[in-house]
Write a structure and sequence with these properties.
The complex is a heterodimer of chains A (110) and B (139). Chain A has one domain: Arc Repressor Mutant, subunit A (Orthogonal Bundle), CATH 1.10.10. Helix content of chain A is 49%, strand content 7%. Chain A has helices at 26-35, 42-58, 64-75, 82-88, 93-100; strands at residues 2-5, 8-11. Chain A has a two-stranded antiparallel sheet. In chain A, strand 1 and strand 2 form a beta hairpin. The longest helix of chain A is centred in the middle third of the chain and has 17 residues, at 42-58. Chain B is α/β, with parallel strands linked by helices. Chain B has a single domain, classed as Hypothetical Protein Ychn, Chain: A (3-Layer(aba) Sandwich). Chain B has helices spanning 29-42, 92-97, 128-137; strands at 2-6, 12-20, 46-51, 88-91, 109-112, 118-121, 123-126. In chain B, the strands form two sheets. Chain B has a five-stranded mixed beta sheet with strand order 1-2-3-4-7. In chain B, strands 5-6 form a two-stranded antiparallel ribbon. In chain B, strand 1 (2-6) and strand 2 (12-20) form a beta hairpin. Classes of the chains: A mainly alpha (110), B alpha/beta (139). Chains A and B meet through helix 3 of A and helix 1 of B.
Chain lengths: 110, 139
Amino acid sequence: MSLEVNGKAYETDEEGYLANLSEWNLDLAEAMAKEDGCDLTENHWEVVNFLREYYDEYQIAPAVRVLTKAIGKRLGKDKGNSKYLYELFPYGPAKQACKYAGLPKPTGCV
Amino acid sequence: MVTEDTNHEGGQVKKFLYLNRRAPHGTNYAQEGLEVALIGAAFDQDVAMAYTDDGVFQLKKDQDTSDIGTKNFSATYGALGDYDVTRVYVELESLARRGLTKEDLMPLVYEDEDDDWEEKPLIRFVSEAELRDIIEEHE
């Protein structure tokens, strides 16, 4: 599968995850979100950027429980809870946000 | 190495001890073992890790895989604490036999949520005999 953005084709797996992490860019993230009918707000970006930083440091995409706890620590308890994160990413906060972040599916997700 | 405990809800909590005896690179046992442990922990298994024999090299700091063309996944050990894996045992005799000291290992920590996120050391150094007892507890 592939996704075309600004005239460039990006290879993805069958679930829409980017094949080559280094090809990621902001426009691609917006385009992936749009395909899911989702407009990325500042609140979405906080989570997406957090995931990219986490991957950069630990070389894995965190499972949803780990993400929730870490967001709570970083951005406060009002954001570090399932309700808030599922409102932003109804398909599953870790799974969906990792996709827009250009990361593989989280370690600990089926 | 699985034992079962009864938790407060009367269900069964399986206790897993992942025993690592192999060097980190050259085979993918180490990387895949780490991933399996993390996935289990993400699903609320009670997970502990043990490193013995050449397995102690897995926790060596400053690993560099650029010349062997594999991913340097050693950074991922730093995520163990985030997955609530807070018991990581390293066998002292195995370290000594390989000319390694505690200071040669990554300074892994976990943040204790119940103690204002204070960082606490993750690695517990144990003797061969102590590790044998720990393995027994998990059988």
